[in-house]
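look at this record:
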Amino acid sequence: MGRIGSYLGQNNYRFRGEFSVLLHSFFITPNNRKVEAFIKHFDLDVEIHQVNFRERENQTDKFLAMNPMGKVPVLVDGDLNLWESNAILTYLATVFPQTHTLPADPKSRADVDRWLHWQSCHLMPAMGRLKTDEDADPVTLLQPLFKVLDIQLQDKEYVCGELSVADFAIAAYTLTKLGRQYDYSEVSNVAAWRDRMAQLKGFIETHYKAPGT
């Protein structure tokens, strides 16, 4: 695939195959799927290892040395052990700049960061409550959030205008089983954006692994 390496500084790249980046993942969760979808969509030179939770692989000394939280995803790049899915997304977008998914301009970058935080601070907790609380009302929890997102998507194909890591982070939650059950008829911009994201190569290739998520 030619020059598809990691970013080493201004205008410096490595050729594909000169290094090994490893993602420890568990495809069934949206925080892992967002990273896997990003890697697969751009054909990044990153190996994906599915962690065996039945065998408690995440509780071994070797794994806990990478992430003391015992959770996935974890990205290993040389001596870097990086956990937290959105941190991994922004790192990959930085070391693989050919994805053009993380703006260099400070204001544009801040906008992407804002929506990454929105996903982790607002959307993820709401989805989590729907999964664990059978009395939780999806309209009450999600409608205020999706109305905000709908306004943001007015006259835009993607959350921040161009495709960015924020789209992968948010879409991974809207494309879960819970996300598919929500009625998007009152947030048409979100509905159209969600359909576009579902057709991206990365989300198509990660969907078959996790039917029902």
In short: The longest strand covers residues 21-25. The longest helix spans residues 106-132.
